[in-house]
Amino acid sequence: SGRLEKRGGFAPTANGLCHVSIAPEQDRLFVSSYTEGQVCVYPLWPDGTVGKATGRVTQVGSSVNYERQEGSHTHSVFPSVDGKVLVVCDLGADTLTVYRLKEDGDLERCQVWKAPPGSGPRHFEFHPNGKWGYLNFDLQPVTEFIYDAATPVFSSMAAVCKGGKWALVDAKLN
Questions:
Q1: How far apart are CA 25 and CA 143, in angstroms?
Q2: pLDDT at res. 167
Q3: Does residue 168 contact residue 159 with C-beta atoms inside 8 Å?
Q4: Nearest Cα to Cα of residue 53 among 12, 109, 110, 1
Q5: Contacts of 98 (CB under 8 A, 6+ apart)
Q6: Statement: residue 16 has pLDDT above 80
Q7: Most confident of 45-49, 82-86, 170-174
Q8: pLDDT grade for 142, boundaries at 50, 70 and 90
């Protein structure tokens, strides 16, 4: 019918959420809290309801823009194509953090990439081939990464200024 029906609800953090994503297997829900700098993992049941948190991390950090970056602000969380890692964009700390998703749903930090000061990492997306990733910022060009699923870390990056295919991003203009 096209109608939305409320199935339940949950309050993972005191101050609400900024971003929600779903594992490729559709069995886990990933959420980020901008104000609390948290990332949480929840089981997602076949009927669409959400279970109790199995993983939670609180990011720490700040950066040069004291009005907007006085503390960690996890803007978004994205699973890899194979669902084995999560990439967290922290606008407040100017970081891109890679977490390994453990079998029990907990998170293990693998890599922290420090973005240029004041750039504000905002959203990340994996290419469907799982080898590349793209990051956009509030105040910088889109950056391209090469991802090694075996380690799992990002091995290089370059600003995206290439012809051919398009990378669509949203832009926040002040």
A1: 27
A2: 47
A3: no
A4: 12
A5: 85, 86, 87, 88, 109, 110, 111, 112, 113, 152, 153, 154
A6: no
A7: 82-86
A8: low
Looking at the chain, which runs of residues are DSSP E strands? 19-22, 28-33, 38-43, 55-58, 74-79, 85-90, 95-101, 107-114, 121-126, 132-137, 143-148, 153-159
**Length of the chain (residues):** 174
**Rounded-to-integer distance, Cα 71 and Cα 52, Å:** 27
Q: What is the largest CA-CA distance in the chain?
A: 49
Contact between 62 and 70 (Cβ < 8 Å): yes
What's the whole-number mean pLDDT along residues 160-174?
42
| 9, 15, 20, 25: CA torsion to nearest 10 | -60
Q: Residue 155's pLDDT is what?
A: 58
The CA–CA distances, whole Å, from 21 to 28, 39, 82 equal 9, 11, 14
Residue type, 111: Q
Under the banding of pLDDT at 50, 70 and 90, the label for residue 12 is low
Tokens of residue 95, six digits: 């970081």
Rounded Cα distance between 24 and 149, Å, is: 15
